[in-house]
């Protein structure tokens, strides 16, 4: 008889959300940027910069948390016999969705996880981001109801499922071979920020261990911020929503205890106050996440359990970060990038094109 996975129950998901709500502010206290104890999009952007895919000097660091998410999920999948290598579900479409998900997130300056953590830290701009995220996911649910489908994935070789975990192991090896040198912007093949958000980070070992733990728990619980909103809107199911709310409430409490809560709109860390674009940036990201089937964290956890299509989405986000910074699409605390508006408009056209054209005809 198969043992029940308690972490996948309603209370299990709530527990995982609460754990993340403790760990994320703690990472911030230990050195990660303000209201950015964990931000999947921001951290993948930093990895992109560390590899030299973009040269925005203030956001370059090989974030151990992302590496830990994938490897923690891999360990959980193997321990509980859930490592299932598969791929073949419109991989290039997923790559494109990953690119525009990242562009939308960097117009807002954060992924769904960071939107919740920004709100828990008192940043009122996150309200617009979360409303935009919900709106984008709602559009995605209209497509899902209308027959949108990227097709089925197929069982494949175990080695294919290992590709992204091996890439992450390679990234970690590069960190060990070319460690950060104080005051230097480059160490061997890796780039490191000497100022700005990329220069703010918790100790490597702590970041990696927390990443591994979150990856393990999230794989077991199926924790997904996008899925929480999608399931509530589409099916009226609040199973995942409990984890979303627990993350917000617990992070708020921990921020109060640690003295990290600052209420307001202006002067928030790594944020801007252009409300329309906070809304629309996250609306684009939410639509892309809904069409791809998971938030950026969930995509990392799926890749850890062998999903090659999720791995393609992850690589799309990393490349999307390079596009965003190389072409002036990303925002900064000073406001939108010079081509951020155009990028959001193009992103909506692309995502809507995908949503309208990739539907199964219902007889």
UniProtKB/TrEMBL annotation:
<feature type="transmembrane region" description="Helical">
    <location>
        <begin position="92"/>
        <end position="115"/>
    </location>
</feature>
<dbReference type="Pfam" id="PF04143">
    <property type="entry name" value="Sulf_transp"/>
</dbReference>
<feature type="transmembrane region" description="Helical">
    <location>
        <begin position="127"/>
        <end position="148"/>
    </location>
</feature>
<feature type="transmembrane region" description="Helical">
    <location>
        <begin position="7"/>
        <end position="27"/>
    </location>
</feature>
<keyword id="KW-1133">Transmembrane helix</keyword>
<dbReference type="InterPro" id="IPR026366">
    <property type="entry name" value="Seleno_YedE"/>
</dbReference>
<feature type="transmembrane region" description="Helical">
    <location>
        <begin position="160"/>
        <end position="178"/>
    </location>
</feature>
<dbReference type="InterPro" id="IPR007272">
    <property type="entry name" value="Sulf_transp_TsuA/YedE"/>
</dbReference>
<keyword id="KW-0472">Membrane</keyword>
<protein>
    <recommendedName>
        <fullName>YedE-related selenium metabolism membrane protein</fullName>
    </recommendedName>
</protein>
<feature type="transmembrane region" description="Helical">
    <location>
        <begin position="198"/>
        <end position="218"/>
    </location>
</feature>
<keyword id="KW-0812">Transmembrane</keyword>
<feature type="transmembrane region" description="Helical">
    <location>
        <begin position="310"/>
        <end position="328"/>
    </location>
</feature>
<feature type="transmembrane region" description="Helical">
    <location>
        <begin position="340"/>
        <end position="358"/>
    </location>
</feature>
<feature type="transmembrane region" description="Helical">
    <location>
        <begin position="279"/>
        <end position="298"/>
    </location>
</feature>
<feature type="transmembrane region" description="Helical">
    <location>
        <begin position="61"/>
        <end position="80"/>
    </location>
</feature>
<feature type="transmembrane region" description="Helical">
    <location>
        <begin position="239"/>
        <end position="259"/>
    </location>
</feature>
